[in-house]
What does this fold into?
Amino acid sequence: MKRTVVHAAFLAVLLAAPAAAFEAQPASQEPADPQPGETFSDTLTSGGPGPEMVVVPAGTFRMGCLSAEGCSEYELPVREVTIEQPFAVSKYVVTRLEFNRFGRGRAGEGYKFEGEGASPASWVSWADARAYAEWLSRETGEKYRLLSEAEWEYVVRAGSTTPYPWGDELGTNRANCWACGDEYKFSAPVGQFAPNAWGLHDAVGNGWEWVEDCWNDTHERAPFDASARLEGDCSDHVIRGGSWRDGPRELRSAFRRPVENPYFKSGTFRVARELRP
Ligand SMILES: [Ca+2]
Ligand SMILES: [Ca+2]
It folds into this structure.
């Protein structure tokens, strides 16, 4: 496994550890996967780094609209979901530069990726977002995929129970949307706003984010674990988080909507990577 670990705290632990701790391991053994909070990028076989990933912990959270007011029936009922294994998630949505490495950015109908490389790869269909993750798996020998809807809300909330990842109010310049008090009229390059508690940037706002799940009108009978919901209306898929074209309602962590269009103007995505057991 080729991987660049860049977390300063992790390096400090490595440097401080007694030599005996390393001698106990056979030289050929691969390093253990990183721990929650650490960041890394896998190296692509074709050259260059994969997306920057951050490890998130296992845990239990309440999914859905947690506030008494302003809820859509799409966001109910609230249920407790347990994410049993830590996993890694990209800190940013996949950028044009990253998507162009996949090779479909310029060729794919509907894509417009001649612009700045750090801008989100938008207009990407759900199927091509999945294809990118499959390509990334082949390029790295690791298991990349879209997030399930439950995983998405888990990592975006990052322990928060408020309407927005940062609190009760939309506030000013926390994200990119039409009502966010930011400087961007369209999409912003990734990472222009403060990350959430687990290090994800643009968790809400900037681009909608595809997840694996088929559309269902409510959370009734939704899984209580990290799995994606693969029954329901599978001509539509769930998209989350709101975009530069959206406002206070859509930017809430609980907000969800179905999208059928194969190419959705403000549709972007982030990837998950499974860790080794
Ligand atoms: Ca804006
Ligand atoms: Ca987003």
Q: What stands out?
A: The longest strand covers residues 208-215. The chain has one domain: 39-277. Residues 103 and 144 are 17 Å apart (CA to CA).
